[in-house]
Amino acid sequence: MAGKPKLYYFNGRGRMETIRWLLAAAGIEFEEQFFETREELLKLLQDGALLFQQVPMVEIDGMKMVQTRAILNYIAGKHNLYGKDMKERALIDMYVEATMDLNELMMHYPIQPPEAKAKHLAKIVEKATTRYFPVYEKALKVHGQDFLVGNRFSRADVQLLETILMAEECKPDILSKFPVLQAFKARISNIPTIKKFLQPGSQRKPPLDEKSIPKVMSIFNIGNE
Ligand SMILES: N[C@@H](CCC(=O)N[C@@H](CS)C(=O)NCC(=O)O)C(=O)O
User: Fold this and answer.
1) How confident is the model at residue 129, as a pLDDT?
2) What is the 38 CA–ligand 1 centroid distance (Å)?
3) CA 51 to ligand 1 center in whole angstroms
4) Which Gene3D superfamilies does this entry report, sorted A to Z (predicted)?
5) 203 C-beta closer than 6 A to ligand 1
6) 69 CA closest ligand 1 atom index
Protein backbone atom coordinates (compact mmCIF):
# COMPACT_ATOMS: atom_id res chain seq x y z
CA MET A 1 0.00 0.00 0.00
CA ALA A 2 1.31 3.47 -0.89
CA GLY A 3 2.27 5.66 2.08
CA LYS A 4 0.63 8.93 2.96
CA PRO A 5 1.06 11.82 0.51
CA LYS A 6 3.82 14.15 1.68
CA LEU A 7 3.45 17.88 1.09
CA TYR A 8 6.47 20.19 0.73
CA TYR A 9 5.80 23.87 1.34
CA PHE A 10 6.15 26.56 3.98
CA ASN A 11 3.94 26.36 7.06
CA GLY A 12 1.20 28.55 5.66
CA ARG A 13 -1.56 28.61 3.09
CA GLY A 14 -0.26 29.90 -0.22
CA ARG A 15 -0.83 27.64 -3.21
CA MET A 16 -0.68 24.49 -1.04
CA GLU A 17 -3.82 25.23 0.95
CA THR A 18 -6.28 24.08 -1.71
CA ILE A 19 -4.35 20.80 -1.94
CA ARG A 20 -4.65 20.37 1.84
CA TRP A 21 -8.38 21.07 1.59
CA LEU A 22 -8.93 18.53 -1.17
CA LEU A 23 -6.98 15.76 0.54
CA ALA A 24 -8.79 16.45 3.81
CA ALA A 25 -12.18 16.47 2.07
CA ALA A 26 -11.34 13.13 0.46
CA GLY A 27 -10.51 11.78 3.91
CA ILE A 28 -6.84 11.26 3.04
CA GLU A 29 -4.24 11.69 5.76
CA PHE A 30 -1.09 13.49 4.71
CA GLU A 31 2.31 14.46 6.06
CA GLU A 32 3.93 17.83 5.65
CA GLN A 33 7.51 18.96 5.42
CA PHE A 34 7.86 22.68 5.95
CA PHE A 35 10.77 24.82 4.94
CA GLU A 36 11.54 27.81 7.08
CA THR A 37 14.24 29.43 4.97
CA ARG A 38 15.16 30.00 1.34
CA GLU A 39 18.16 27.70 1.88
CA GLU A 40 15.83 24.82 2.71
CA LEU A 41 13.85 25.46 -0.47
CA LEU A 42 17.08 25.64 -2.48
CA LYS A 43 18.20 22.34 -0.98
CA LEU A 44 15.04 20.67 -2.29
CA LEU A 45 15.75 22.24 -5.64
CA GLN A 46 19.36 21.03 -5.67
CA ASP A 47 18.15 17.54 -4.82
CA GLY A 48 16.32 17.63 -8.16
CA ALA A 49 12.90 17.21 -6.56
CA LEU A 50 11.27 20.24 -8.21
CA LEU A 51 10.60 19.79 -11.91
CA PHE A 52 10.12 23.51 -12.56
CA GLN A 53 12.09 24.78 -9.54
CA GLN A 54 8.87 25.65 -7.74
CA VAL A 55 6.59 24.38 -5.01
CA PRO A 56 3.95 23.15 -4.12
CA MET A 57 5.47 19.71 -4.43
CA VAL A 58 3.62 16.58 -3.32
CA GLU A 59 5.07 13.10 -3.11
CA ILE A 60 2.19 10.84 -3.94
CA ASP A 61 1.92 7.30 -5.32
CA GLY A 62 5.64 7.21 -6.11
CA MET A 63 5.58 10.54 -7.97
CA LYS A 64 7.05 13.89 -7.04
CA MET A 65 4.23 16.03 -8.36
CA VAL A 66 4.49 19.78 -8.97
CA GLN A 67 2.10 22.33 -10.51
CA THR A 68 -0.85 22.99 -8.23
CA ARG A 69 -3.52 22.25 -10.82
CA ALA A 70 -1.91 18.97 -11.89
CA ILE A 71 -1.77 17.88 -8.26
CA LEU A 72 -5.39 18.87 -7.62
CA ASN A 73 -6.56 17.14 -10.81
CA TYR A 74 -4.80 13.95 -9.77
CA ILE A 75 -6.27 13.93 -6.27
CA ALA A 76 -9.75 14.79 -7.53
CA GLY A 77 -9.64 12.07 -10.21
CA LYS A 78 -8.26 9.46 -7.84
CA HIS A 79 -10.84 10.14 -5.13
CA ASN A 80 -13.93 10.48 -7.29
CA LEU A 81 -14.35 14.21 -6.79
CA TYR A 82 -14.22 15.11 -10.47
CA GLY A 83 -17.67 14.42 -11.92
CA LYS A 84 -19.08 11.36 -13.63
CA ASP A 85 -18.20 12.26 -17.23
CA MET A 86 -16.28 14.73 -19.40
CA LYS A 87 -19.07 17.28 -19.38
CA GLU A 88 -19.37 17.34 -15.61
CA ARG A 89 -15.62 17.58 -15.41
CA ALA A 90 -15.63 20.56 -17.81
CA LEU A 91 -18.19 22.35 -15.64
CA ILE A 92 -16.23 21.53 -12.49
CA ASP A 93 -13.08 22.87 -14.17
CA MET A 94 -14.80 26.15 -15.03
CA TYR A 95 -16.11 26.55 -11.49
CA VAL A 96 -12.82 25.72 -9.79
CA GLU A 97 -10.70 27.85 -12.12
CA ALA A 98 -12.85 30.82 -11.14
CA THR A 99 -12.41 30.06 -7.43
CA MET A 100 -8.66 29.89 -8.03
CA ASP A 101 -8.69 33.26 -9.80
CA LEU A 102 -10.36 34.80 -6.77
CA ASN A 103 -8.06 32.92 -4.37
CA GLU A 104 -5.03 34.27 -6.19
CA LEU A 105 -6.28 37.80 -5.66
CA MET A 106 -6.90 37.08 -1.95
CA MET A 107 -3.56 35.32 -1.55
CA HIS A 108 -1.75 38.47 -2.66
CA TYR A 109 -3.64 40.74 -0.28
CA PRO A 110 -1.39 40.28 2.81
CA ILE A 111 1.76 41.07 0.82
CA GLN A 112 0.45 44.35 -0.62
CA PRO A 113 2.31 47.47 0.51
CA PRO A 114 0.26 49.45 3.08
CA GLU A 115 -0.71 52.14 0.57
CA ALA A 116 -2.17 49.55 -1.85
CA LYS A 117 -4.12 47.47 0.68
CA ALA A 118 -7.46 49.31 0.70
CA LYS A 119 -7.67 49.32 -3.09
CA HIS A 120 -6.75 45.64 -3.28
CA LEU A 121 -9.39 44.73 -0.68
CA ALA A 122 -12.03 46.71 -2.56
CA LYS A 123 -11.13 44.80 -5.71
CA ILE A 124 -11.48 41.45 -3.93
CA VAL A 125 -14.92 42.38 -2.60
CA GLU A 126 -16.05 43.75 -5.93
CA LYS A 127 -14.91 40.67 -7.90
CA ALA A 128 -16.33 38.25 -5.33
CA THR A 129 -19.75 39.89 -5.16
CA THR A 130 -20.26 40.91 -8.78
CA ARG A 131 -18.33 38.39 -10.85
CA TYR A 132 -17.96 35.10 -8.98
CA PHE A 133 -20.51 34.56 -6.18
CA PRO A 134 -23.56 35.44 -8.32
CA VAL A 135 -22.68 32.57 -10.68
CA TYR A 136 -22.58 29.95 -7.91
CA GLU A 137 -25.65 31.42 -6.21
CA LYS A 138 -27.60 31.15 -9.46
CA ALA A 139 -26.33 27.67 -10.36
CA LEU A 140 -27.36 26.25 -6.98
CA LYS A 141 -30.68 28.08 -7.04
CA VAL A 142 -31.59 26.96 -10.57
CA HIS A 143 -30.91 23.25 -10.11
CA GLY A 144 -31.97 23.24 -6.44
CA GLN A 145 -29.52 20.48 -5.56
CA ASP A 146 -27.16 20.22 -2.60
CA PHE A 147 -23.97 20.21 -4.63
CA LEU A 148 -22.69 22.39 -7.44
CA VAL A 149 -22.31 19.74 -10.13
CA GLY A 150 -24.13 16.48 -10.94
CA ASN A 151 -26.01 16.29 -7.65
CA ARG A 152 -23.00 14.82 -5.92
CA PHE A 153 -20.07 16.03 -3.85
CA SER A 154 -17.11 17.14 -5.97
CA ARG A 155 -13.97 19.25 -5.77
CA ALA A 156 -16.08 22.18 -6.95
CA ASP A 157 -17.91 22.16 -3.61
CA VAL A 158 -14.68 21.87 -1.65
CA GLN A 159 -12.93 24.65 -3.54
CA LEU A 160 -15.93 26.96 -3.41
CA LEU A 161 -16.21 26.53 0.37
CA GLU A 162 -12.51 27.28 0.80
CA THR A 163 -12.92 30.44 -1.27
CA ILE A 164 -16.06 31.55 0.59
CA LEU A 165 -14.30 31.22 3.95
CA MET A 166 -11.29 33.18 2.69
CA ALA A 167 -13.57 35.89 1.32
CA GLU A 168 -15.33 36.10 4.69
CA GLU A 169 -11.98 36.71 6.31
CA CYS A 170 -11.65 39.74 4.03
CA LYS A 171 -15.21 40.93 4.68
CA PRO A 172 -17.25 38.98 7.26
CA ASP A 173 -20.65 39.85 5.74
CA ILE A 174 -19.60 39.21 2.15
CA LEU A 175 -22.34 36.55 1.75
CA SER A 176 -25.10 38.82 3.03
CA LYS A 177 -26.74 39.08 -0.40
CA PHE A 178 -26.24 35.39 -1.21
CA PRO A 179 -28.72 33.30 0.82
CA VAL A 180 -28.23 30.18 -1.28
CA LEU A 181 -24.47 30.35 -0.75
CA GLN A 182 -25.02 30.82 2.98
CA ALA A 183 -26.98 27.56 3.04
CA PHE A 184 -24.36 25.90 0.82
CA LYS A 185 -21.61 26.97 3.22
CA ALA A 186 -23.45 25.49 6.21
CA ARG A 187 -24.20 22.25 4.34
CA ILE A 188 -20.71 21.60 2.97
CA SER A 189 -19.05 22.62 6.26
CA ASN A 190 -21.02 19.82 7.86
CA ILE A 191 -19.68 17.01 5.70
CA PRO A 192 -17.74 14.91 8.23
CA THR A 193 -14.29 15.12 6.58
CA ILE A 194 -14.66 18.87 6.10
CA LYS A 195 -16.10 19.42 9.55
CA LYS A 196 -12.99 17.73 10.93
CA PHE A 197 -10.68 19.90 8.80
CA LEU A 198 -12.44 23.02 10.04
CA GLN A 199 -11.80 22.13 13.66
CA PRO A 200 -8.85 23.59 15.60
CA GLY A 201 -5.76 21.41 15.48
CA SER A 202 -6.28 20.23 11.89
CA GLN A 203 -3.69 20.80 9.15
CA ARG A 204 -5.66 23.78 7.85
CA LYS A 205 -3.50 26.88 7.98
CA PRO A 206 -4.46 30.30 9.35
CA PRO A 207 -4.26 33.47 7.24
CA LEU A 208 -0.76 34.85 6.85
CA ASP A 209 0.06 37.08 9.82
CA GLU A 210 2.13 40.26 9.67
CA LYS A 211 5.21 38.69 11.20
CA SER A 212 5.31 35.79 8.72
CA ILE A 213 5.20 38.03 5.67
CA PRO A 214 8.93 38.91 5.53
CA LYS A 215 9.77 35.21 6.00
CA VAL A 216 7.55 34.12 3.11
CA MET A 217 8.87 36.91 0.90
CA SER A 218 12.42 35.84 1.66
CA ILE A 219 11.76 32.10 1.08
CA PHE A 220 10.26 32.77 -2.35
CA ASN A 221 12.49 35.72 -3.17
CA ILE A 222 9.39 37.87 -3.71
CA GLY A 223 10.26 41.40 -4.76
CA ASN A 224 13.79 40.40 -5.86
CA GLU A 225 12.89 38.37 -8.93
N1 LIG B 1 2.18 27.32 -11.74
C2 LIG B 1 2.83 26.95 -10.50
C3 LIG B 1 3.33 28.18 -9.80
C4 LIG B 1 4.12 27.78 -8.57
C5 LIG B 1 4.74 28.96 -7.84
O6 LIG B 1 4.69 30.12 -8.30
N7 LIG B 1 5.31 28.66 -6.69
C8 LIG B 1 5.98 29.63 -5.87
C9 LIG B 1 5.58 29.45 -4.41
S10 LIG B 1 3.86 29.54 -4.18
C11 LIG B 1 7.48 29.36 -5.95
O12 LIG B 1 7.91 28.22 -5.88
N13 LIG B 1 8.25 30.42 -6.09
C14 LIG B 1 9.67 30.34 -6.17
C15 LIG B 1 10.16 30.57 -7.56
O16 LIG B 1 9.34 30.70 -8.50
O17 LIG B 1 11.37 30.61 -7.72
C18 LIG B 1 1.88 26.15 -9.62
O19 LIG B 1 0.66 26.43 -9.69
O20 LIG B 1 2.29 25.28 -8.87
Assistant:
1) 98
2) 13
3) 11
4) 1.20.1050.10, Glutaredoxin
5) no
6) 19
On the question of pLDDT at 1 being above 70, the answer is no
Q: State the pLDDT at residue 223.
A: 75
Q: Are the beta carbons of 53 and 30 closer than 8 angstroms?
A: no
Q: What is the spatial distance between Cα 87 and Cα 37, in angstroms, rounded to a whole number?
A: 43
pTM here is 0.97
Q: Is 56 in the pocket of ligand 1 (CB under 6 A)?
A: yes
